[in-house]
Amino acid sequence: VQEKKIFMVQGHYPIIRRLMRARGWVEWKPPSTDRQLEQQPLHSPCPPAGEEEEEEEEQCDEDPNGIHDLMSYLVRNRVPNFIWTNYLGAVDRKLLGQDHVVNHYARVGAFTTKEGLCLSLQNLPWIEQTDPNTFFPRCYLLGTTGEREAFIDDFRLTAARSLLKLALEKAENRLPGSRQPPGSNKGPGDWHMCHDSHPMPSTAGPGYPLYPHLVEEALEVCEQHLGVLGHQDIDRGTPFPCRTCIDWDRFLHDYYCVAQLALSGALQNRCQELLQRLEEQLPQLSMEGKLNVWILKPGAESQGRGIVCATRLEEVLRLARGCTALSAREGKWVVQKYVERLLTIFGTKFDIRQWFVVTDWKPLTVWFYRDCYLRFCSRPFSLHSLERARHLCNVSVQKWYKTSPDQDPRVPPDRIWSSKQFQAYLGQLGQADAWHQVMVPSMKAAILSALRSAQDQVGFRKGSFELYGADFLVGEDCKPWLLEINSCPTMSPSSAVTRRLCANVQRDTLRLVLDYKDNPTCSTGAFELIYKE
Question: Which of 163, 386, 185, 161 is nearest to 296 (CA)?
Answer without folding.
Answer: 386
